[in-house]
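User: I'm new to structure prediction. If I give you an amino acid sequence, what do you actually give back? Let's try with this one:
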Amino acid sequence: MNTLLSSSQAIAFLLAVPPLGAVGDARPDLVGRVVRGDQVPVPNATVFIYTAGPRTGTGVVCPSCYPDCGKRARTDTNGTFRIPSLDPGLLFRLLVVAEGYESIYVPKTDPAAGEQTVVIAPLDAAKLKAPTRICGLVLNPEGEAVPGATVSPEGVARGGGTQWGGTDAFVDPLGVTDEHGRFWLYCTNGVDLVHALVEGRGLAKRWVELRPGRDHLIRMEEGVLVTGMVESGGQPLADVLVGVVTADRTCGNFFRGDELATDKDGFFALPNVPAGREWVLYTTMNSLRGRGAMAPRTFRTGKDGEVVKLGELAVTPGHRLAGRVVLSDGQPIPPETRMFLGREQAWDHTEVVLGADGRFAFTDVPAESVGLSVRIKGYQFSKRNPSLDWLNGGIVGRIAQDVTDLTLLMEPGEWRYDRGEDGPSGEDRQPREKPLRSVKLD
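Assistant: Good question. You get back a string of structure tokens that encode the predicted 3D arrangement of the chain. For your 442 residues, that looks like this:
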């Protein structure tokens, strides 16, 4: 790990990326109105350019790192606003906040499309006083309010247990901070604790525990900048999607970063990666198709504000995984049946369409553990498959070389989670680290 630049300096480098619009293109103004549901204008609302993305293709910088991000305007007495001279090559995600109103995002906004109308709703005064409400304040490392931060409930503790996912019946699905950094969430009776993921523009994500009826102060960190260069045979590779996920996948600890593309020099810079954790860096198979594969790279982030320089990351020839899916009753594979291949370490997958004879082929697969899944109504993977994942119903195993004749058997039945107690024990129950193996057909 080298700490040669501060993260702020590195972000300044990212901001130097030239606009996407061609030289001489007109830079349109973003013009619009903010109103209530009854079309009454909302004065003194603030409209932020929160994040952006290229109109076509994949961005090489983070969504909040474009020069136009952070621009803002206030509405006048008629609820109108104007943000001048925006990059014509970008689409924008707006954040609209106003005192006494719920904050709202407006995705994929095109300034060239003409006047935008944004409808916002007043805050519910009764909810603000409810004993089951959660109130909080989100601040940046300098102690300043963070407008537009999202607070996303992912788990709810009730009684003696915690439910992860499907929490909308117990707590609001999302809270968004206003221009003073304040947010509110409303819970049903019986909720003891909410586990939430907090995200703010230009800041590292963090997990928080929130209790109904209390006020919370949440201070965010800048995070770590992760840089590197993707190459093959000494030549840089452009337009390769690079992402990071935590090695720890447990609820309340897992983080996933943005996927960004390498530039023409193969360089990438992933900002605001949470500090002090073990991570897996990966490149996506689809972005490398025809150019090879790259094994996941494990690394650890240090202190907040540091830079992790991973250096050159080599793309090498990938493997071919091919074979066929056989239905035990001899029926043909339904048209447009898709097989998904997911990587165990990386947060990445690809897919192919099975032929009528069940044939499939994946190319440029990295040497690692993978999972295969197919959904055909009325069928499930047979227990005779030696690479069956007995807990999840798919196929799992490791690829270390080309596999050209993998045969997988499906039989009538309904897939369900956990096949019961009649399967193998130990590592054979989920044989992720064993080579993918074919079923022996009669």
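You can read the tokens as a compact description of the fold. Here is one thing that stands out. The chain has a mean pLDDT of 89.
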